[in-house]
């Protein structure tokens, strides 16, 4: 097992009595479009800190960096996250196809990575992305969360921006 | 298997050539703090439309309704989602404790529900919440996504708002 990032961080907090990383991180620039300058040993160590589930996957949330809208949630395996970090774009693992899913490959609706985060227990990834084309959902909507619970039922509450037959 | 909300919606879209629900939903008010006026048969039907995984769970994302920040991602089983809908607050399923997890029960950091959505394939829930106390994370941070990937490593990039030993 990889060391728990949560434990490390909390120990550091307790040790120093505050949050020593925060100020430094605040002034860091957002990610460039690739991380080819980061050595592969660092990437492997970072991947080891993710708490992969028993299928070797981690859920990854994509948030629109401009609007703050949650665009979608999909899954990554180690290769998908490594590719996401290396290429600076969201690459998921398609559970139905058992293959890497380079978001936007057929639609052109690429998600360019602005920032990527991991949560306190290391088992969820959050990405800030630039959503090319303004459409994340295969139904032709801005994002996938199209059903809203109102009066006891799920109602469609997002407009179709573009007919999916024109996208694929 | 429950009918797929995705298929239903796309058929409706194709049938009518547009998005018949959107205008109506736009003017709907946000949720009240409970749904006790919704009959239980409706709730059961809505729960049937969720694509539960093989453990009977669905990932649920909590987004701060005011700031747009993603607060956390946790899991719900059928009972947790039913309770969330009935009580108008986020109730998760703790996989480690195998028990309902009424968020804020010990910390007071309740997540009051403003809106709840389901995604296109019915397998992810998104909640807009009012985060009581402004702290969602058990580490005493505003949200759980405390590690940012910078220069090849995960760095803590969120301040501790309150020492967790004072919360629990």
List the helices and strands and how they pair.
The structure is a homodimer of 168-residue chains.
Chain A: H1 5-16, H2 22-26, H3 40-48, E1 57-64, E2 70-77, H4 78-87, E3 91-94, E4 99-102, E5 111-118, E6 125-131, E7 147-150, E8 153-156, H5 164-167
CATH architecture of the domain at 31-133 in chain A: Roll
Biggest sheet descriptor of chain A: 4 strands, mixed
Oligomer: homodimer
Structural class of chain A: alpha+beta
Order of helices and strands of chain A: HHHEEHEEEEEEH
Average residue-wise pLDDT of chain A: 84
Please give the alpha-carbon distance between the first and last residues of chain A. 41 Å
List low-pLDDT spans of chain A. 1-24
Q: What would you report as the Rg of chain A, rounded to the nearest angstrom?
A: 18 Å
Give the count of helical stretches of chain A: 5
CATH superfamily of the domain at 31-133 in chain A: Phosphoribosyl-AMP cyclohydrolase
CATH class of the domain at 31-133 in chain A: Alpha Beta
Number of strands of chain A: 8
Helix content of chain A: 10-25%
Beta-strand content bin of chain A: 25-35%
Structural descriptors:
four-stranded mixed beta sheet, Ubiquitin-like (UB roll), globular, 168 residues, homodimer, disordered N terminus, alpha+beta
Describe the structure.
- Two copies of one chain form a homodimer.
- The longest helix of chain A has 12 residues, at 5-16.
- The termini of chain A are far apart.
- With 168 residues, the first copy, chain A, is an alpha+beta fold.
- Chain A has five helices and eight strands, in the order αααββαββββββα.
- Chain A has a four-stranded mixed sheet, with helices on one face. In chain A, strands 3-4 form a two-stranded antiparallel ribbon. A two-stranded antiparallel sheet of chain A has the order 7-8.
- Chain A has a domain at 31-133: Ubiquitin-like (UB roll) (Roll), CATH 3.10.20.
- Chains A and B meet through helix 1, helix 2, helix 3, strand 1 and strand 2 of A and helix 1, helix 2, helix 3, strand 1 and strand 2 of B.
- Strand 7 of chain A pairs antiparallel with strand 5 (111-118) of chain B.
């Amino acid at each position: 097992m990889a060391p728990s990032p949560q434990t490390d961080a909390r120990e550091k907090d307790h040790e120093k009595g505050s949050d020593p990383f925060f100020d430094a991180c605040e002034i860091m620039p957002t990610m460039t479009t690739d991380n080819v300058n980061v050595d592969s040993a660092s990437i492997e160590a970072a991947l080891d800190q993710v708490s992969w589930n028993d299928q070797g996957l981690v859920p990854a949330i994509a948030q629109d960096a401009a609007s703050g809208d949650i665009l979608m949630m999909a899954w990554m395996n180690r290769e998908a996250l490594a590719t996401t970090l290396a290429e600076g774009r969201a690459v998921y693992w398609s559970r139905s196809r058992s293959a890497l899913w380079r978001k936007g490959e057929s639609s052109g609706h690429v998600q360019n990575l602005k920032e990527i985060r991991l949560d306190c227990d290391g088992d969820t990834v959050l990405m800030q992305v630039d959503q090319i084309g303004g459409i994340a959902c295969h139904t032709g909507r801005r994002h996938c969360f199209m059903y809203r619970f109102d009066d006891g039922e799920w109602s469609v509450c997002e407009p179709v921006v573009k007919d999916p037959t024109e996208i694929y």
